[in-house]
Amino acid sequence: MPSHESNPNTENNLTQTLPYRFYSDPEILKSEQEKIFSKSWQYVCHESYVRQPGDFFTAEVAGEPIVVTRSKDGELYAFYNVCPHRATKLIDNEAGNKKILQCPYHGWTFHLNGELNKAPNFKGVPGFCPADFSLRHIQVASKSSLVFVNLDPNAPSLEDSYDDFFTDLNQFDFLDELKVNDVKKRTIKCNWKAFIDNFLECDHCPIAHPGFSATLDLDEYHIVNGNNCSVHGSELKTKKGKEALDLPMGSAEVQEGRFYWIWPNVMLTIYPGPGNLSTIQMIPIDHETTLGVYTNFSKYEEPTEERKTQVAFAEQVRNEDVELVEREQIGLQSRAFEHGVFSPTEHAVHKFRDMVLDALDVSD
Ligand code: FES
Ligand SMILES: [Fe+2]
To answer: Which residues form a coiled coil (predicted)?
Structure first.
């Protein structure tokens, strides 16, 4: 992965942000659903949700209902969560375990590998071939216990798409052992990109995150851009940081905070202390509203006191960020300015800007 990237400059020596209409125009979001969310790997769930035959997990990707399943023979599958008979959404529950998937409308049933099992109202109908009525497959892949789907059948593999991210993540050997402790969903009044922008820089940390700044050594905070990802890290400010996180750090599995963004809308955080992970998904609801899905994992069914302290610490930082991005969205929708500028240390936001422009095939 390259280390600090330079910040290419415009003629007046300052780099411009995305035009603000990109954060306030429903047509731009439509285009993003088509060109970004329908073409990129989208994180769906931790593998623990779909480990046993019959397990399933449903989600929405680019506005499409999808379902990930584990079949009888142990294979992972993903489909549009839509019945091939007359389009009814097949499964409502977010997660669970079923021997067979049954459509609630006319009772067609499907195996977990997507094949049609029975179509009661087509029994004996000449010319009806069950093999023509499987669920519609989509690409699915799991790596480091993280399950992703991609609606684009021609997309490059998950491994190739996020090679730098997975290489870095590989240093943590506890990912397979993690258990979901809680999932929190929050409606945020901002365009999804405003939240990503916020995550991708720490210029705001000394101003907006007093607790975070007192705990992590911001002088050493590093932001490294990789292929379809940005990896951030910082060590604890020795004594103060350990006190804030209430940690006996000598043997802790994680010695440094590690924060990942992967294109386009997922972030993962690993805080110093015992093995832990949180995933943060930013799913657009509309051009000015986003669903934040925060999932906290630890190695135990019930979080330990140390993990609770970590989560409370992270939630404080998240709340501070949500307040910032909702405040920013007010200005992004104002006519006051058409765009802003990047500082040299906002280079990861700049990279994200370029990726959005590339994906949408527009020059700013
Ligand atoms: S729509 Fe599903 S069985 Fe008819
Ligand atoms: Fe922040």
So the answer is: none
